[in-house]
Amino acid sequence: MRQAVILAAGRGERLRPRTDFLPKPLLSVAGRPLIVRHLDHLAAAGVERVFINLSHLGALLPRFLGRQWQGMSLEYSDERTQRLETGGALVALRERLENAPFLLLNGDICTEYPLAQLLASAPGLVLVDNPAHHPEGDFAVREGWLAMPAPGLSTYTYSGLALLDAAWLANFPDGPAPLAPWLRQWVAKGLLRAYLQQGYWCDVGTPERLQAARLHYGGT
Question: Could you tell me the superkingdom of the organism this chain comes from (predicted)?
Fold first, then answer.
């Protein structure tokens, strides 16, 4: 089954006061909420099941989206009593992901990367040229594989889009945990391919970047 996880539990502190009333994934770019852009993109790629984690104002997401979207089933993971962070959120879903590959998308990005192409690829991360707010980057690339930064290797930034394997989550404990250290472990083991971003990308994490995405798409 083609499946995906959208991380949608963030507070969106830097986007207040907008996020005092809406969860960040419901902020709109050119008239479409960020999470709707993701869901439309996933449906077009043939995804059948999407898991969405919830926390801040989390009740609004299932109320707005429902349980079906263009033929996909939507399932929710409620973190309103305890935020699990990006890694813990995946551990909480591992049984429902059935030890199978899944797309992972941050709920606060705009991306035009072809998701059907990523689904047909080996597990890996989609990388972007280092943006101004993260000039040091996260990873290097060596012969198509992700590598840790090293002298002589250009660095790139993780875009917030990946294809991962839920079987890799088996030995991590339940509870809050960041994903980044696990990504570095998998990179060190040579498990992750590197895919360079295709098309437009924006991390909509500040009012300025939200406005940049809106201007790109010619709307509000």
Answer: Bacteria
